[in-house]
Amino acid sequence: MSDEEIVAMVRDRCVSIMEIHPSRVGLDARLKEDLDADSLDLAELHVSLEEVWGPLPRETFAAAKTIGDVVARARELESV
User: Rounded to two decimals, what is the model's pTM?
Assistant: First the structure.
């Protein structure tokens, strides 16, 4: 999966889960502060990403603060 595809996939899933406009989902957007993601939103995002990469440890995205952090971790998973 290319970098552009990873960014688009993460953005699309965030838009769907958090019910927000795609323009709000930039790489520097903070999940909780800017996108108002709560713990349920973050859990749903984790589960939706497991659909792509299979079972992931709970810690995989725990430290992610921004969309860019999620994308960076997804890139790491893609390269494994």
Answer: 0.87
